Amino acid sequence: MSPADTRERLLDAAQRLFVQNGVRATSLRSITTEADANLASVNYYFGSKEIMVQAVFSRWLEPLNKDRLKWLDRVEEEAGDGPLEVEAVLGAFLGPTFHMMRDERARDFPCLFGRLHAESDELTAAIFEQFHDVQVRFIQAFLRALPHLNLPELAWRMHFLIGAMAYTFGAADILKFISKGQCTLSDLEGALKRLIAFSAAGLKAPVPNQGDTTQ
Amino acid sequence: MSPADTRERLLDAAQRLFVQNGVRATSLRSITTEADANLASVNYYFGSKEIMVQAVFSRWLEPLNKDRLKWLDRVEEEAGDGPLEVEAVLGAFLGPTFHMMRDERARDFPCLFGRLHAESDELTAAIFEQFHDVQVRFIQAFLRALPHLNLPELAWRMHFLIGAMAYTFGAADILKFISKGQCTLSDLEGALKRLIAFSAAGLKAPVPNQGDTTQ
DNA sequence: GTCTATAGCATGATAGAC
DNA sequence: GTCTATCATGCTATAGAC
Question: What's the rounded Cα separation, in Å, for the pair A145 and A139?
């Protein structure tokens, strides 16, 4: 059932517990117990809790971001010299995360990542550095798809978009609460479609009048 | 400078440290040191750390939610029997939070609350129960302002909206990162206007075709 | 590679003097 | 109300047997 390799079992167990209780609140003891491994194994395989936390995140974040870029490559290729569709760029940005939830072992990673934002640390800062390439490429793509936005306006709207995404995964229980149990994340296609529809409309909205757009 | 009352000083210090380091990671020792009070004072005034955490949140959340309802009363009154404007309902929902940031003592509460979502607990569940009235009233108002949405579709969109809001306050450093330092939360009016424009467009967007809308 | 045992430290809570 | 001192517990990390 679970992989034989202790190192992988530790990562799986840590990920599961991080989702449930947060990174800080999860002890090495609970991880090694859950992984059916020895307390000392974490330090044997990783050297410290912090390095292990990094490993938990990098394990899925790296392929996830590669997926996003590959997907964006395809979208840009198909568009050629023509206009770039916002919905397509959004699909490249959001799709891989939703797709990830079809893989049983990666399933709870989007939830974990959604929750990470609140536990910001020196630790978190290191993780967000992995987004540099994705950030640069998607800013370019969005600017091309949304010629009515300048960089600061786009930055605000990407921020709202990322918030909506992070919250969708990290706070699914609140969705259930709002909808009186009628909405859950289990319909992944529907959720993705809804998030794209919502944020495409938000991104396309005209910029409201104001004085200074740089703050 | 700081209020003379120890109890208040403890709440202020706790709030400040919770924003910086998270609730779980903040020790009673650091709180009492920051508040210039004795280690035993937390247990003297509150009985336990958990009760104090509740107090930190209730202190601002209660007036905040009352503000939202009063603001919504006014919006509904002005609309009379006519149509209800989405932007006005959004103003009632979001405005009080932004307004709160003008009060020096409450300033970092929206950030704290934005970050809370990721530290969900039995503790958090109790806090979210304070939203019952606000939730009921705003769902009604949004349904009236957005007749093309049914409850499940609205619930999804409110979820996206709350995510964007929580992230705006809780992850302002990421906004700075995306915009290469050009965007900050310091222009509150601008931020509120942008968030309303973005989410009004998202809420108004037509519902994309799909089979089942209940999941 | 896996285990036990434990060092060294920080935590929340409390008892009791003032 | 405020303080010191301390308890019991839990934590990360490591040393060293097997």
Answer: 10
Contacts of B53 in chain A (CB under 8 A): none
Separation between the CA of B2 and the C1’ of C12 (whole angstroms): 26
pLDDT digits (tens, 9 = 90+) for B96-131: 999 999 999 999 999 998 888 767 666 667 788 899
pLDDT at A1 over 60: no
Q: Residue A64: left if φ>0, alpha if ψ -120 to 50, beta else—which one?
A: alpha
Query: Taking CB atoms and an 8 Å cutoff, what residues of chain B touch A113?
Result: none
**CB A50, CB A127: distance < 8 Å:** no
Structure tokens at B55: 């107090």
- How far apart CA B159 and CA A25 sit, in angstroms, is 26
CA-CA distance, A107 to A212, in Å (whole number)? 42
Q: SS3 for A22?
A: coil
Distance CA A186, CA B1 (A): 52
> Which of A135, A182, A199 is nearest residue B202 as measured by Cβ atoms?
A199
* Mutation for A interface: B94, B98, B148, B174, most A CBs within 10 A: B174
For residue B206, give the DSSP letter: P
CA distance B96 to B75: 14
Helices B188-204 and B151-170 pack at an angle, to 10 degrees, of 160
Residue B181, C-beta contacts closer than 8 angstroms, at least 6 positions apart: none
Q: What percent of chain A has pLDDT over 90?
A: 79
Residue with the two structure tokens 């403890």: B10
pLDDT for position A215:
45
- Name the residue with higher pLDDT: A213 or A104: A104
Put simply, the answer to whether A167 touches B170 (Cβ < 8 Å) is: no
Question: A175, B159 in Cβ contact below 8 A?
Answer: yes
Which residues from chain B sit within 8 angstroms of residue A94, using beta carbons? none
User: What are the structural domains of chain B?
Assistant: 1-47 (1.10.10.60), 55-204 (1.10.357.10)
Average pLDDT over residues B68-84: 97
Residue identified by tokens 């990542």 is A113
